[in-house]
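On to our target:
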Amino acid sequence: MAEKIPQTFANHTRWDPLFHFFLAPVSLLLLVWAVAHLVRHYSHEAVAMVVFALLLALTIFMTRTYALKVQDRVIRLEERLRLASLMPVGAKIPELAERQLIALRFASDAELPSLAHKAASQQLGSKQIKQAIQTWRPDYWRV
């Protein structure tokens, strides 16, 4: 098995070739083509084609959105458990927004408590949190 490339802020974005380079563009092209066909040749069949293309595009994008939302919920739970185990006894887990918790998953165990406190007190965004990470903890499972 090949070694995985170390993950950093610069290369952590994950692309799913089937979705990003085939399903999404083809479904959008089909929708544009169906609308153009409807404008040029109005008929009941052309209307049905637009409705079908719209349903297909929405299904593709909603399926992806739902999968990412489930992953975000699991990551949020995982990071809350991780924070609870790494924070000093008696310390309250900071109230972090979902996006902050998801960004903190890349922080090493050593820097997570201080970075979580900083993210909560300064209301850092996910990009700012990721840029502040010194020792990157890779997440190769994100879809």
The longest helix spans residues 44-86. The chain has two domains: 17-75, 87-138. The chain has a mean pLDDT of 91.
